[in-house]
Design brief:
flat; five-stranded mixed sheet; 16 helices; alpha/beta; 475 residues
Length: 475
């Protein structure tokens, strides 16, 4: 069984060990013969090696006949469906893997390759699963977190009986008895309510208020008073509940929210701008490292390059007292866990910022009954142009006081706080000076913020603050 498993998983090291056992046998530490082996049984060593070689090569293509026939039939049927009914086929395929965001992402990428658009969820168009919408496929509402099947079925029934929802307030009013805040926020964050009258920021910030408004109106009705819903045309379409004008979320903020409630990016992807860099960097798509069918192409221990967005970073203190990191790395096709051991983390940790695109070189780790993992050996930030170039130092100027000068909006700026986190990683002798735009003054940072200046630190500070806001002054 060990040989069978090693053959199926293409484990070269195990196969080599089993080859020796097959030919020469296995003797325990006590000197007892556990496996006789061919030679002890009188088989010539050369013939035994040839027999094992035939077993090994046979495993590369051998397959149980009953399984092969069944797979062949299914492969023929699905190939036919994909060829003649591609939209219907991909919609059904996506619906079948709703609980696996990795597979959904991979199949959505296949839709793109086939020229089929996957439209975002829409409260007036989407069904429970993925559905065909004209020449496109519409995202299914069951793939959105915090939305139960029962609640979604009520939405579809309400839509069928009383027509499409016309505004944000109209939706809340008609679905109030089934609606809760978490479900409403998930619908807003995934973009399902974008076709109504308000933008995502307006809807998200007014969600609690509109639910409180409807709850108060319901109490008034129960108490026998003239309620909002009894006022005839008054309030039709939510006229009695006004939402102040405000700017919508940025594209990046929308993507973050979409990722939060669906496990994937819907209106775009941070890695879309880097698709043309795959060939230049000889990068591999993450989904190609995950499937068992790719085990022969990318076996355990293979050195690969991948590009992706840092999804999350979790650190852990090892037994030796050092710190390592567990990073989720995601591209447009899948997600993989990346292990960053202490030495590599110390050198490249500044680039592991959530939401930032990076290029990684690492070793693939495949273990039976476990998801594939990537062991990081080196990484660098990605730029939309010239992503493969090496780190560049920021420009240098000559002033009276040598040191590292940073220009920030204010001491409360999120970018300044992120820059401070980077400075903490590189303790050293170089003084740091902070120019705050809000007060128009230059401040000398405390001694505890002095740094060891290097290319990695300068590059990442340039990414966070902008290169023109990071200046290194020589002695």
């Amino acid at each position: 069984d060990i040989v069978r498993r090693a053959m199926s998983k293409k484990k070269a090291d195990v196969m080599e060990r089993e080859r020796q056992i097959f030919i020469h046998g296995l003797v325990s530490e006590k000197g007892e013969v556990e496996v006789e082996g061919c030679v002890r049984r009188g088989v010539d060593e050369k013939i035994a090696a040839e027999i094992f070689g035939e077993m090994e090569s046979f495993a590369a293509y051998a397959f149980n006949k009953s399984h092969a026939a069944a797979y062949a039939l299914v492969a023929y049927q699905t190939a036919w469906l994909k060829r003649f009914y591609p939209k219907e086929y991909m919609a059904a395929l996506l619906t079948s893997v709703l609980d696996s965001s990795n597979k959904v992402a991979a199949y959505m990428a296949e839709c793109t390759r086939l020229g089929i658009r996957v439209l975002p969820p829409d409260i007036n168009q989407s069904g429970l699963g993925f559905t065909v919408s004209g020449r496109d496929v519409r995202f299914g509402l069951l793939a959105v977190k915090n939305l139960g099947r029962g609640f979604l079925q009520h939405i579809l029934l309400e839509r069928e009986q009383h027509g499409p929802f016309t505004s944000f307030f109209d939706f809340c009013k008609r679905m109030y008895d089934q609606l809760n805040r978490r479900a409403l926020e998930s619908l807003v964050k995934c973009g399902a309510l974008d076709g109504l009258d308000l933008n995502r920021r307006q809807m998200l910030e007014s969600a609690e208020k509109v639910l409180d408004f409807l709850e108060a109106d319901k109490r008034r009705n129960v108490e026998g008073q003239l309620g909002f819903f009894d006022m005839g045309g008054a309030g039709e379409g939510g006229q009695e509940f006004s939402v102040p004008a405000m700017h919508d979320f940025s594209d990046r903020e929308k993507l973050v929210y979409e990722k939060e409630v669906t496990g994937m990016y819907l209106s775009g992807h941070p890695m879309a701008a880097f698709l043309d860099q795959y060939d230049a960097l000889h990068a591999v798509r993450i989904n190609e490292l995950l499937g068992e069918e790719d085990a022969s192409r990318y076996p355990d221990g293979t050195i690969v390059r991948v590009m992706g967005v840092v999804g999350s970073v979790r650190t852990k203190v090892t037994k030796s007292g050092s710190t390592m990191a567990f990073v989720l790395l995601e591209d447009m096709f899948g997600t993989i866990e990346m292990l960053v051991f202490p030495t590599v983390l110390g050198e490249y940790g500044a680039f592991l910022v959530e939401g930032e695109p990076i290029a990684v070189q690492g070793k693939l780790s495949r273990r039976e009954d476990e998801e594939s993992k990537l062991i990081c050996e080196s990484l660098q930030p990605l730029r939309e142009k010239n992503a493969g170039e090496s780190f560049r130092p920021v420009r240098k100027q000559t002033t009276k006081r040598p040191g590292l000068y940073l220009k920030v909006l204010s001491a409360e700026s999120p970018r300044y706080k992120r820059a401070c986190q980077l400075l903490e990683l590189f303790e050293g002798p170089t003084p740091v000076y902070i120019y705050r735009c809000d007060v128009g003054k230059l401040f000398s940072a405390p001694l505890s913020m002095r740094v060891a200046v290097n290319g990695v630190l300068l590059e990442q500070l340039g990414v966070v603050l902008g290169e023109k806001n990071v200046i290194l002054v020589d002695k």
